[in-house]
UniProtKB/TrEMBL annotation:
Homodimer. It comes from Odontella aurita. PANTHER family: PTHR33178, STRESS-RESPONSE A_B BARREL DOMAIN-CONTAINING PROTEIN. This is Stress-response A/B barrel domain-containing protein. Residues 10-108 form the Stress-response A/B barrel domain. InterPro entries: Dabb (IPR013097), Dimeric_a/b-barrel (IPR011008), HS1/DABB1-like (IPR044662).
């Protein structure tokens, strides 16, 4: 792998436990809500998806079945994102109604990305 230099950024990853009874419409609303987060200042990328476990893998999900990953430009951007009305709206309208447990979130500074140029 080669080094792809980039500005330091903040990774914000949220593990979700979506209720088994969540409908396709609920999941579509979650996906659209996640997509809308990209409009928040300082958000560089947003990714959301269903966790998978294959036969050859040990299930280490502890019940988390969806993941939301947001890359932000800085710690200040993360601070603004946390209280941004669009973020709070997604939590209230898209996430809270379908979660069976509180989400688990982690953040870290990611100064470099490794991969092909």
């Amino acid at each position: 792998m080669s080094l792809n230099e980039s500005e330091p950024a903040v990774e914000h990853v949220v593990l979700l436990k979506v209720k088994a009874e969540a409908t396709e419409d609920d999941i579509e609303k979650l996906m659209n809500g996640a997509k809308s987060l990209h409009a928040i200042p300082g958000v560089l990328t947003v990714s959301v998806g269903k966790v998978f476990v294959e036969d050859f893998m040990e299930d280490r999900t502890q019940g988390h079945n969806y993941v939301l990953a947001v890359r932000l430009s800085s710690k200040d951007a993360l601070k603004s994102y946390k209280d941004h009305p669009d973020h709070l709206k997604v939590i209230k309208e898209c996430l809270a109604p379908i979660l069976s447990a509180p989400p688990l979130a982690v953040d870290w500074v990611s100064p470099q990305i490794f991969g092909k140029k």
